[in-house]
Amino acid sequence: MNKLLLFLTLSTLFVQADIFDFQTIEKANQAYQKGNYIYSVKLFNSLKKDDPTVAYDKANALYKAGNYNEALKEYAKAKGVNEAERLHNVGNCYFKKQDYNHAIKSYERALKMREDVDTRHNLELAKKKKREKENNKKKNKDKKKQNKKKENPKKKNNQKKPKKEKQDDKKDRDKKVEKPMTTKEIRKKELKHMMNKLSKKKMPTLMYQSNQKKGERNDTQNPW
Questions:
Q1: In a domain, 159, yes or no
Q2: With contact defined as beta carbons under 8 Å apart, do 61 and 44 qualify?
Q3: What is the pLDDT along the chain (224 residues), one digit of tens a residue?
Q4: Buried b (16+ CB within 10 A) or exposed e, 34-61
Q5: Residues 88 and 75 in one domain
Q6: Which domain holds residue 70?
């Protein structure tokens, strides 16, 4: 009798728990339908039941809430629940994360199980986005290379300047390093300078009378 009462009590508790879980799932799904995804996730989290179907619905709510990493974890727990649809949604999570390689793989796996217009469209879109991302990456690399090439000529020009200065220094040294003038050349130069100076002035001449005695000088003339 006691065993029967215990069995009935446990059965009642399990039924009540199932009813409670069912009600929570219903509320979570209603919140999802209304677009209140965060509240829907909260209700799903309150369930202690480890059910792939619940994990699938929770993953959908997480995806709609923009929590793609957590959604992927829940989709992993929901394996076997409408696999084609699940893989489609997994692909969508990766697409939102801009992980186009994994998105393409998920879409392709989903299409192997079932041909679907939306999945096919998403697959082509993921491939297009992947190409755009790779092209942008390549453009950025080329741009960096061009910028480096533009910087290099400036460095070369800066390096050439000291060479020019060295040539100027060499000229100055060549000017300074001249052969020293000989005494004869110095006297010749001084004489030439003196003659040029005298030619610019009226140079007085020494006048002597023809009848002047030897050693006698005419005082009427000024010596120069």
A1: no
A2: yes
A3: 444 433 434 344 334 446 767 788 888 888 888 888 998 888 888 887 678 999 999 999 999 999 999 999 999 999 999 999 999 999 999 999 999 999 999 999 999 999 999 999 999 999 999 999 999 988 888 888 888 877 766 555 555 555 555 555 555 555 554 555 666 676 777 777 667 766 655 444 444 344 444 444 444 343 33
A4: eebbebbbebbeebeeeeeebbbbbbbb
A5: no
A6: 10-81
28: tokens are 């979570």
Of 30, 53, 81, which marks where a domain is finished? 81
- The position carrying tokens 């697959």 is 123
Question: What pTM does this model have?
Answer: 0.58
Give the CA count within 13 Å in the CB-facing half-sphere of 29: 11
Tell whether 102 and 139 lie within a shared domain. Answer: yes
Residue matched to tokens 């393409």: 104
